[in-house]
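Final report, Chapter 2: Outcomes

The project's central promise was a pipeline that accepts a single protein chain and returns its three-dimensional structure in a standardized token representation, suitable for archiving and comparison. That pipeline is now operational. To close this chapter, we reproduce one record exactly as it appears in the project archive, with the input sequence first and the structure output second.
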Amino acid sequence: MRIAGITIPENKRLEISLTAVYGIGRSLARKILDKSKVDYGKKPKDLTPEEENEIRKNVEAHKIEGDLKREVSSNIKRLKDIKSYRGSRHAKRLPSRGQRTKTNSRTLRGNVRKTMGTGRKKEDKK
């Protein structure tokens, strides 16, 4: 089963496998399945073509994949263009929501800084 150019995992529950699509989390997947009248625990390989089409129709009603990524990147670009504080934080690749940066923030800053310890070498025991 493919939705928006993404292959949905066949052996996982529908509730989980729909999250393979960018922009669909667990709660949105449940709403889509409720609207489509399909059981959460059903697997994609067990779906009938009618159920597949209903799910596909309900998924495409939401902003997903390329459109969503484009919108997010244009929002960030707008913040940079108006030179807002959040935009400057995005430009410097730092957290933009007030987190501390002395420690942590490895996700954005990268895992390049390692702690050193004392700097002394271990001596051989005689």
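Archive annotation: The longest strand covers residues 2-3.
This record, like all others produced under the grant, will remain available to the consortium after the project formally closes.
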